[in-house]
Design a protein that fits this description.
Length: 117
């Protein structure tokens, strides 16, 4: 019976972590951008700001830049100059964002193991 409701329990768990970390306060349209940055970091890929702006699904460039600025102001991402080309801005998660995503992953794994026992 436990396993049958795993997805519901997982959604509830993720929602609670997102609420406690402030992740739920992010504008809905900015969340896919944050997830894109997190995915690139998970794959150990450097991500340039222009790489993000070029993704059409994120909106027009001025809108994407505004969403990136909002994520940066909220403490979810950081943009630093590339050491090889100072004109390029590299985007990555902040330590707080990494911690939040790690907590979600750890709790989901724990819940998954418990549901399968």
């Amino acid at each position: 019976m436990e396993g049958r409701f795993f997805i519901l329990r997982l959604r509830r768990l993720i929602g609670a972590i997102e609420a406690s970390s402030g992740l739920q306060e992010i504008e809905d349209a900015a969340r896919p951008i944050l997830d894109f940055v997190a995915e690139a970091e998970c794959e150990n890929r450097s991500l340039r700001m222009t790489d993000i702006v070029k993704v059409r699904e994120f909106g027009a460039p001025p809108t994407v830049y505004a969403r990136l600025a909002g994520l940066q102001e909220a403490g979810w991402i950081e943009a630093v100059a590339d050491t090889e080309d100072r004109r390029v801005r590299l985007v990555s998660l902040t330590a707080a964002a990494r911690s939040t995503f790690a907590r979600i992953s750890d709790e989901a794994c724990s819940l998954s193991n418990a549901a399968c026992d």
